What does this fold into?
Amino acid sequence: MQAEPRLYAYDGGVTAVDSGFNRSQMAACYLLESDTSVAVIETGTNDSVPRILKALEARGRSAEDVQYVIVTHVHLDHAGGAGSLMQACPNATFLVHPRGARHMIDPSRLEASVRQVYGDEVFNRDYGTLVPIPESRTRVVESGETLELDDRPLHFLDTPGHARHHFCIWDETTRGWFTGDTFGLSYRELDTARGPFIFPTTTPIQFDPGALKNSVERLMARDPDWMYLTHFGRVGDTARLAGDLLGRIDELVAIAERYSDAERRGKVIAAAMLDGLEEAARDHGVKLSSEDFHAVVATDVQLNTQGLEFWLDHRGGR
Ligand SMILES: [Zn+2]
It folds into this structure.
């Protein structure tokens, strides 16, 4: 039986829905509401779709009210449920980055590449069957476009660096960005009196540190009050977090370069990354035991390592 989804209602008609991916408070989907319509930003996986539908109901909305289904990029913890959600929301238009659209209309290549990175077992367990989205219901959104959810303007910005098929969405009403993975990861378990803790995601296979830093700086150019992170939830204190994030992108690159020729490179990079993160978290005041800290970041350390290794092997040559 599907558990009741955990909802986080923020000011300005923004609600985070725990997608249930992997563990609680790891990945969010967002409902963005206007008087008569709703946009869903990030769909999670197929397993997240019933949670989104329940969240709509809890907010007094219906699937028919959904005007837009939006994914920041086509990594499957963000977009794996988009096809199923579109089937459930008959009036919705699907909004996607120009480089992501074809993978959602025909998910076969996307599925093959994810199977290659994560293996069949993980794919079948976490993602199930990807549902194609009809091209007629898909709208490609170019960088710089503004669309209206009723009278609520949503501005789209191309933000490569984590992936080349990534955009972020600016909500003028709350002065916040829906950042996908561009503004890194900030888990609520690592909050302290000093506020949120943040670190980058360098997931395979399109990590590009220069582009990522540039994208973070372009997000900050709007002087945002809030960042709505997919992993996980709303954070303020954006200037301090941007500084921390930019510094940690450099640190991860330095670790990758330091150990690029090491034997058992992946293990060494992952260990150095984990040590560096834990030290930074301790400086930030995180009091979790090492074991609990590792449990919060372990999946990301593993994925970040895979992404850095791919970057080491392919940089300059693409
Ligand atoms: Zn991603």
About this structure: The CA atoms of residues 199 and 248 lie 6 Å apart. The pocket of zinc ion is lined by residues 73, 75, 162-163, 181, 203 (CB under 6 Å). DSSP finds ten helices and 13 strands in the chain. The radius of gyration is 19 Å.
